[in-house]
């Protein structure tokens, strides 16, 4: 019996253009996510000059900006960062659900990795924990996912690089 072929991304040769699209709302949390993402990208060999950061008002506006970035800049990957914190109204569900659904659709439409680092949490304490304290830094984790997917897409013969 032939061995089963396995393919997975790595963190070697992941240089290229990355765009971080950031929702400013809850910036006291989101700023740490951005720092974590940039730090991880640079530590893994991405040239700082190949990292662009685009700011939007909040998580709801992320998908439109991500779509424009994908159309115009054609990066290897996009990292979407933001924080949606549950309040006393259903607004949380609409913003978080709409943002997440649209990002997933855009990833498939443009065949480009979009790492979703948008926190959807019940409290400010949870947001702080996920932006660099007890629960790690979800911005750094999103950057790791982006690089791994860039590597995987290159191995599978896809991604922006192949179409150019």
Automatic annotation (TrEMBL):
Record keywords, A-Z: Riboflavin biosynthesis, Transferase
GO BP, one annotated term: riboflavin biosynthetic process
Catalysed reactions listed for this entry: (2S)-2-hydroxy-3-oxobutyl phosphate + 5-amino-6-(D-ribitylamino)uracil = 6,7-dimethyl-8-(1-D-ribityl)lumazine + phosphate + 2 H2O + H(+)
GO cellular component: cytosol; riboflavin synthase complex
Its job: Catalyzes the formation of 6,7-dimethyl-8-ribityllumazine by condensation of 5-amino-6-(D-ribitylamino)uracil with 3,4-dihydroxy-2-butanone 4-phosphate. This is the penultimate step in the biosynthesis of riboflavin.
Keyword Transferase: yes
Sequence positions that bind (2S)-2-hydroxy-3-oxobutyl phosphate: 88-89, 130
EC number: 2.5.1.78
Family annotation (InterPro entries): LS, LS/RS, LS/RS_sf
Subunit description: Forms an icosahedral capsid composed of 60 subunits, arranged as a dodecamer of pentamers.
This protein's pathway: Cofactor biosynthesis; riboflavin biosynthesis; riboflavin from 2-hydroxy-3-oxobutyl phosphate and 5-amino-6-(D-ribitylamino)uracil: step 1/2
Keyword Cell wall biogenesis/degradation: no
Record-linked PANTHER family: 6,7-DIMETHYL-8-RIBITYLLUMAZINE SYNTHASE (PTHR21058:SF0), 6,7-DIMETHYL-8-RIBITYLLUMAZINE SYNTHASE DMRL SYNTHASE LUMAZINE SYNTHASE (PTHR21058)
Family classification: Belongs to the DMRL synthase family.
Residues binding 5-amino-6-(D-ribitylamino)uracil, per UniProt: 25, 59-61, 83-85, 116
CDD domains membership: Lumazine_synthase-I (cd09209)
Gene it is expressed from: ribE
Any one GO molecular-function label of the UniProt entry: 6,7-dimethyl-8-ribityllumazine synthase activity
Record protein name field: 6,7-dimethyl-8-ribityllumazine synthase
Active site, renumbered: 91
